[in-house]
Automatic annotation (TrEMBL):
Gene3D superfamilies: 6-pyruvoyl tetrahydropterin synthase/QueD (3.30.479.10). It catalyses: 7,8-dihydroneopterin 3'-triphosphate + H2O = 6-carboxy-5,6,7,8-tetrahydropterin + triphosphate + acetaldehyde + 2 H(+). It is an enzyme of class 4 (lyase). Its cofactor is Zn(2+). It comes from uncultured bacterium. GO terms for biological process: tRNA queuosine(34) biosynthetic process. The keyword Lyase applies. Binds 1 zinc ion per subunit. Its EC number is 4.-.-.-. This is 6-carboxy-5,6,7,8-tetrahydropterin synthase. It comes from the Bacteria. Pfam families: PTPS.
Length: 144
């Protein structure tokens, strides 16, 4: 059974080597649909009987990561000159080893979150996919 939790956050970035206006600092209201897979719990009268996992538990895992690392911050690739200013001014940022395109960000989030669902609360869960919207009309899907 697959279940999905949606989360949104605001984050800035730029594509420093791109020839379009995406080279400039800009931000998005990102939206991620995070899908996990597991068996329905059948323990009679257990708190989570009939569920794969409580949606609140998924929210807690995702929100801790997103709020702590990404929300209202800037994502820049190592070597991006913008990071020098951001560090100097003590702004929130995440430095990564890739160009922060939607495709790369989706894969990075997947790789960071996948271990969080492995055996969570003693359950056999697997992160299945991340659908990341950079705008309401544009999204990428990464499946692990």
């Amino acid at each position: 059974m697959q279940i999905t939790r949606i989360i949104e956050w605001d984050m800035g970035h730029r594509i420093p080597n791109h020839t379009s206006q995406c080279r400039n600092i800009h931000g998005h209201r990102y939206r991620a649909e995070i899908t996990v897979e597991g068996d329905i719990i059948e323990d009679t009268w257990a708190s989570d009987e009939g569920m794969v996992i409580d949606f609140g538990d998924i929210k807690k895992i995702i929100k801790t990561f997103i709020d702590g690392e990404l929300d209202h911050g800037y994502m820049g690739c190592r070597g991006d000159v913008v990071l020098d200013l951001i560090r100097k001014e003590s702004f929130k940022y995440t430095e990564v080893d890739f160009i922060p395109t939607a495709e790369n960000i989706a894969k990075w989030i997947f790789d960071r979150l996948a271990p969080e669902f492995d055996g969570v609360y003693g359950k056999v869960l697997k992160l299945r996919s991340i659908k990341l919207y950079e705008t309401p009309n544009n999204y990428v899907t990464y499946e692990g």
